[in-house]
Amino acid sequence: MSTNETKNKGKKKDRSIISLFTLLIFLGIFITGLLIYLQPYSKSMAILHTTFAIFFVVLVILHIKNNWKVLLNYFKPSGKKKWFAAIIVTILVILIGGLTGAPPFKTIVDFGDKIRASDAIENVEYSIINTKDEIAGNDILVEMKAGEHYHHVQPLFLWMSLSIIPQIAIWVEDADGNFIETLYVTSKGAKGSFMGFGSEEIRRIEALPIWSHKRGQVEKDGLFMPTKDNPLPDAVTGASPESGMILNTKVASDLEKFVIFIEVNKSFDYNEFYADGLESDAPGYNSGFSGQPAVVYSAKINRKDGVRYYFPELVGHSSPTGGDGVLSTDTSNLDTSLLLIDRIIVEVK
Q1: Cα separation of 21 and 183, whole Å?
Q2: 3-class SS at 259?
Q3: DSSP string of 108-126?
Q4: What's CA 252's distance to the chain center, in Å?
């Protein structure tokens, strides 16, 4: 067998392997893309889909390299001009339609959003909470699915234990970061009704410090968390949900662009970094019974873009002592606090 024949045989083999690999990777992209479209957001599925896409790009480059001369023939003048023009027009229509959100592209996306949101809500038990019932405004629904660390039983001493669920605050800011209004706060945080051992009343400033500082109301003792003497109105408060929750609430009618924030904190949520009993100069020092600091999620809402469902993402955590309202974006020392919430969906009606 001649050298040229050997080379050609080797090239054909390479092309076959690359073509088969490309087909398999494409099937991976198709399947994971379909699951992402139809099912609630999964980070592992998103990572898998992205990995398949990266491999697919590499294989396409190899395919072009191996078939360069053949591909060049497609661009030579021939009777294929009409087909070539049709392909270009189709690509432009997809690009423009996708970027502008024109029908039917937006309709397809909205349909997927509706399926994912419906599937999420139908398969989980929720506490239904209504706030701002008698206030005029635009309806907002916040669906929050509890994570695997949402609830735990904290041993105290002997046979005594305490059932622990998180404190939650949900509020709205404008696009410039200015506080607009509170949509919901769990009762203990809203009324300052935290109790210590016995009948001792304590001020848990580390519970929801981002919300309380953003709200900006200083109490008589110089702290930002509400007190029993100056609680939030019942219109925006409710009991801590035992599991997930669906919040039906409202925002002001004149708000077109705003940011919705969700802050979540659970007592006794210690880990190796935010340990119990640390000295005040330790990096993970935390006050009260908090342990890990409150975690914060947010989503930017634009009523003009026509999107109905938004999916708030983790943006950081609060101070572990509650001494300020600074949002820290470094979450590397958090673990179980990241498992308090599995997923949040905001529906703009």
Answers
A1: 51
A2: strand
A3: HHHHHHHHHHHHHHHTS-E
A4: 23
Query: Sign of torsion, CA 118 122 124 127?
Result: positive
Would you say 251 and 183 are in contact if contact means Cβ atoms under 8 Å apart?
A: yes
Cα end-to-end distance, the chain, whole Å = 72
Domain ranges of the chain: 3-110, 128-348
Hey, what are 6's tokens? 């050997």
pLDDT digits (tens, 9 = 90+) for 125-134: 788 999 988 8
CA atoms in the 13 A half-sphere facing the CB of 61: 6
Alpha-helical segments (H) within 158-243: 187-191, 209-215
Which has more pLDDT, 80 or 19?
19
Sheet holding 313-317, edge to edge: 237-238, 179-186, 167-174, 257-265, 295-302, 313-317
pLDDT per position as a tens digit, 241-278: 888 899 999 998 788 899 999 999 998 899 999 998 88
Distance CA 180, CA 183 (A): 10
A 10 A CB-CB count for 151 gives 15
Where helices occur in the chain by DSSP H, the ranges are 3-38, 43-66, 68-73, 81-100, 105-122, 187-191, 209-215
> What is the maximal distance between C-alpha atoms in the chain?
96
Q: How many residues does the structure list for the chain?
A: 349
- The letter for the amino acid at 246 is I
